Amino acid sequence: MEAESLHLEVDYVGSSGTILSPEQKAALQTSLVILKNNQKFNRVYYWGKILGVKDDYFIAQGIGKDEMNDKTTLYSKDCVNWNLLPPATDAMKKTSRLAKGRFTGDPSYEFEHVEVKKTYGENDEVQEEEETIPIKEEDRLASVISDIDNDVSIVPRAAFIKRPAGQVVKNRSFEGLTVQEAAKLSSYMHFRDAVKLNEKTLLQRANLDKAIDFLDIIEEDIPKGSWSLQFERGSGLVTLRSLLWLGYVFYHVPGTRKFGCVYTGTGEKNQDLPFML
Amino acid sequence: MEDSEFNESYYSNAKSYLLTCSTDTGANLYDHLSHLLTKILIGTPADPLATLEEDSRDAKKCRVTSDPQQLRDQWHFDHKWNLASKQIKLFQKHDHNPSTPESEDEDILPNLMRIAHYFELSGEGIQREEMFRIWLAMNQFLSSELYPIENIRLWGKVLGTRRNYIVLEAELSETEDEETNLEQTSTPLNSPVNCQGGTQDTESDIDSDVIPTTIYRPPPVIPAEQSGTGVNKKTYFVCNEPGEEWIRLPDVTPAQIVCARQIKKFLSGDVNALVISNPPFPGHEMNYLRAQIARISASTVISPQGVYKFDEEAEGEEEEGRDSYVPDPDFEGLTMAELADPEIRYWVHHVPYILPQGRTKWFNPVHLKHQEEMDEGEEEDEEREEADEPEPEVGPPLLTPILEDEDIDGAPPWVAHYSTKLVPEYAVAILHSSLWPGAHAFAVEQGKYFENIYIGWGMKYTATHLEPVLPPLPQLEFPSGPETTEDEDPTPEVEAAWRKRQQEWARKMEEEAEAAEEEESDEDDY
C-alpha cells in the first residue's frame, strides 16, 4: 500500500489480522518519507512484514518510472533504519527454495542445505558426497519477496495501462470497479509479465484491449480456488486473500480508486494447498 | 389562379410542418417562434441577435410541461444496507431484565476495548471498529440470556475461504444433558461399516456358499468427555459478522480430534459445510471448527506463572492429575523482564493437554470391550484375545511451564517481545506462538492483566509438508480354505481307480436293491 496513505489504508486490511501498532505507523510515516527522498523514488510502498522467529522484517518497495520492472526492495527491523536488499536473480531464487523453515530474524544468518550427491567412482562404487550449500538470509528474503510478487501480487483490471512504448503506468481515468465487477475473479490481474496471455489463441485475444488486458487474470490460477474473495462491510470493501501464500491480503473499495495489498506472514509457500481445498 | 393555388399548397404544407408537435414536450415550432418574436417585439432588447438563443431557451422554460416520467425511482437492493441494518441493532441500548440484577451482567462482560488496546500496541489483532462491534454483539448476546453463562471472553477470529468466524468462549453454569448436546453432532458421513465380523464358522452351513465375511472389527468408540469437563469445559459460540445470530458449537468427541490431527483443511465459513477428507471426518464443518478450537486452546492459552494455582481444597487426585485451578490471591507479580523472557520460563498452560486419544483424561478402551461383550451375552466359543491392557496415555500436567514445550525443528515454540523498545516503562510483553501462527498473548501490570487471542486460519504450522493418510489397502484374496484352494488334477491312474470304485459301488447298490425287492416280495407272500 502507498506510504502516503498508510495510516488510512491499513484499516482496510485490519479484518484479516494485519494491523500496525501506533508506534509502527508513526515510525513508518516518517522513515518512508526520508527514504523516498534519499533514494529518489517516484513512489514508496509499504510491502508488508515477514515474521521471523526472533524478530520481524518490515519490507518497503520503492518504484521508479516503470511500475512493474523498476522496483527496489528494502528491509528494516525497527521501521526506522532501512537496508537495501539485493535484486533477486534466478540462481538466487533457485538456491533459496532449498532453505526450509522459518526466517530467523538475523539478516546475517546462513542457512545450510546439505545435498547428498552420489558419484560413481572407479569400479562402480557409489560415493556419497555431502555438499553444503550456504544460503544467506538476506538472499532468501529477496527471493521470497520476489516470488510473492510474482505469484500473488494483483491489481484491479484497468488500474494500470501499458503505454505504446511499453511502459506500465497508473491509469489516471480508473474509477474503480463496480460492485458486480468486484465480485468476479476475472476483474483482477497478476501484476507481472504476462505468462498465460501469450498462450491464448488469436481469437481470444482479438477482443482484448491491448492497453488494459496485458496481464494474466487470476481466474485462471491453478489450483482453482486458491483465492478467497470476501466482501467486508456489506459491499463496501472487497478483500482477496491468497491461499497459496498465506498472509497476503489485497483490498479494494468498489467505486473508488483505492486499492492496495500487503503481506504479513512467515514467508513460506503453502505447499499443501491442493489438500486443503 | 393556379400559381396562387400552388403557393397556397406550399404555404399550408410549410405551416403544417411548422405545427408538428415535438415528441418531448408537446410544443411545436410554429407556436414557439411566434411566442419568441412576440416577446422580442414587446421587450425590444438592445442586441436581439446575440441573445437569441438565450431568449429561445427562456421561452421553452416558461412553458409549463408535465413530466411524462411518472415512475418512482426503484429502490436498489444493496448488501451494504443489509449488513448495516443488522448492525444498527447492536447500537441500541438494551433494557436489562428486571429479574436479574444489573451487576451480574457487568461482571461477566470483559473490557474488550482495553484488551484490544494492548493488542494493538503490540501490533496484533483486528482493527478497533470491528472489536467494538464484537463487543456490542457480546453484550447483546449476554443480555439476551439464552444460555446461563458464567464467564465469557473473545476467543478470536478464524479466517475462512468464503466467510470468517468470530469465536466466543463461554463457561456455562449448569451442565445440560449430554443427550441434547450430542444430538447436535451430525451423523458421521462415511461411518465404517460395522460388520458383524468374526469367527470363521466352518462347521455351520456347508450347503450354501458362504460369502466370506470380513474379520475387521472397528476399534471401540471412545466416549466423549461430558460437557463441563475436560475438553468440553468451555462452550463456543460463533458467528460470521457481529450482529448476526450466535451459533453454538457442539461438544467435541475424541474421534473428531484424532481425525482433525490428521487432516489439514480450510474452513469455508459455513457451519453446515461438508468436510471432505481422508480419513473421513466424522462431522460437518462445525465439528471440525470445534476440534481445531480445542487443539488451539490446549496448546496456546497461557497465563503468567503464579496467576493460577491448584485448588488446595479439592480432593487429592494425584493419580489422574489435578484439573482445576483457582486464581491465586497472593500473586505478587512478575517483572517485565521475566514476562518477556526469551526463554519463556514464567508462563504456563492453564488448559489441559489433549492426549493422543482425543481426551484430557485417559479412558481405557478395554472397559468398553468388556461392556460390549457382556451386553451381547452370547456364549460363542471364541478365543478371547488376551486383553492387552493398553498403556494409559500420559500428558504433561496442568500448569506446566511453556519452557517444556517441544521445539519445532529447532525453533522455539513461543517468541516473546516487548511492544516497544523506545518507551520501556510502558511496554507490553507480547508472546507469539510459532506452532499455531496467529495465537498471541500479552501481559501488563506485572502479569496481573493478561489475555490470549487467536487470529488466523486455524492451521498448525508444519515445517515439513503434509503427508496425507493413504487409503487402506483392499482385501486381496479370499481367505484360503478347502473351497478356495486349488486341488491338483487327478492323474489317469487315480481316475481309473475312481471309476472302478464307482462301478463296484453301483453294482453293490443294484444287488442290495434286488435283495430288498426279494425280501419285500417274500413278505408280501406271507
UniProtKB/TrEMBL annotation, chain A:
Matches recorded under InterPro entries: Radial_spoke, RSP9
Coiled coil, from the record: none
UniProt keyword annotation of Disulfide bond present: no
GO biological process terms on file: axoneme assembly; cilium movement involved in cell motility; motile cilium assembly
Keyword entries, A-Z: Cell projection, Cilium, Cilium biogenesis/degradation, Cytoplasm, Cytoskeleton, Flagellum
One cellular component (GO) term of this entry: radial spoke
Principal location class: other
Subcellular localization(s) per the UniProt record: Cell projection, Kinocilium; Cytoplasm, Cytoskeleton, Flagellum axoneme
Family: Belongs to the flagellar radial spoke RSP9 family.
Protein known as: Radial spoke head protein 9 homolog
Organism of this sequence: Lingula anatina (Brachiopod)
Protein's gene: LOC106182087
UniProtKB/TrEMBL annotation, chain B:
Locations listed in the record: Cytoplasm, Cytoskeleton, Cilium axoneme
Biased composition (Polar residues): 186-201
Keywords tagged on the record: Cell projection, Cilium, Cytoplasm, Cytoskeleton
Record InterPro entries: Radial_spoke (IPR006802)
Acidic residues composition-biased segments: 373-392, 511-526
Superkingdom of origin: Eukaryota
Composition bias, Basic and acidic residues: 496-510
Location of the region described as Disordered in the Swiss-Prot/TrEMBL record: 176-206, 371-397, 474-526
GO-annotated cellular components: radial spoke
GO biological process, one term: axoneme assembly
The name this protein goes by in its record: Radial spoke head protein 4 homolog A-like
Gene expressing this chain: LOC106168422
